Model the fold of this input.
Amino acid sequence: MPMTPPPDLASLSLAEIARLADEQKLPPVDSWNPAHCGHSDMRIARDGTWLHQGSPISRPAMVRLFASILRREADGRHVLVTPVEKLDIDVEDAAFVAVEMKVEGVGPDARIAFRLNTGDLIPAGPDHELRFVERDDGPHPYLQVRRGLEALVARPVYYELAALALDNGSEPPGVWSNGAFFAMAPA
Done:
């Protein structure tokens, strides 16, 4: 059965994006507790590329399928889970990459939604927080996706967030989305 291709972010309102995100049906991987079976020979590269035995998985539908059964364990490991098996998967940074952003409103009334490299749509807010980690090579913003899984916000999208923060004029600089404020730097 073919998977439905992801919707186009630009053609949707933020209300439509929120509705689609709420309607997204994912397998109940949190309730599956099979025995650990080993390693999947899969890796998610820093840029969001999914690889199997070192070769990129070129079919987007396969990546979306694997992403739907991805879970993060309490110890921080990432695993692919089905009702009968659990396999480790290596993740270099974050499981997903936020590759596109859409904003409606300004200041405390703003709403921001992101499209991930898997096509998933995630509205930032209290249930999907943004956090910013300072590293030697600069800031690394992350979006909470689900069940401990995060998306690294791609550099061009981060620059859009930074422009929003500067326009807000808040101290510390940050962005609003769905009633939540996310500081981009310490006060």
Summary: The radius of gyration is 17 Å. The chain has three helices and 14 strands. The first helix runs from residue 14 to 23. The helical segments are 14-23, 60-68, 155-168.
